[in-house]
């Protein structure tokens, strides 16, 4: 089995990076001072997608190059931790119009904001099930998740 894969037909990751940079340049300097719940939802979706990409790379690479697989799994864990923080920020942000902040328990109901606009809680719960299968609680709560292999 070869240790190198053929190049992808089209590498879209640089386009995603450029789109985020473009979005930041256009919207942050002149945008509102407080991040909207819609923006937090979109950022959470982006991190969950990135988590899936890193998960796929970690699974494939770990079988061939253990040290690289360890680093990819660590990156995957850190991305999930960032998604957890975005999810918490979403719930800390006031609702548009009313300014009300929903109770954290509302997340367990699935869609505290109502379908179909913002599905951050459904996405978060769905991904959390995958995270629990792939990661130990110790990994998720460790201050440093990087393994060092030499």
Protein architecture, described:
There is one protein chain. The mean pLDDT is 82. The chain starts with 12 loop residues before the first helix and ends in a 9-residue tail after the last helix. It is globular and about 55 Å long. It is mainly alpha-helical. Helix 2 (37-62) packs antiparallel against helix 3 (66-92), helix 2 (37-62) packs parallel to helix 4 (120-134) and helix 3 packs antiparallel against helix 4 (120-134). The chain has helices at residues 13-27, 37-62, 66-92, 120-134, 137-141. Helices cover 59% and strands 0% of the residues. The longest helix is centred in the middle third of the chain and has 27 residues, at 66-92. It has five helices and no strands.
β-strand percent reads: under 5%
Helix-residue proportion: 55-70%
Distance between the termini: 23 Å
Largest sheet: none
List the secondary-structure elements in sequence, H or E: HHHHH
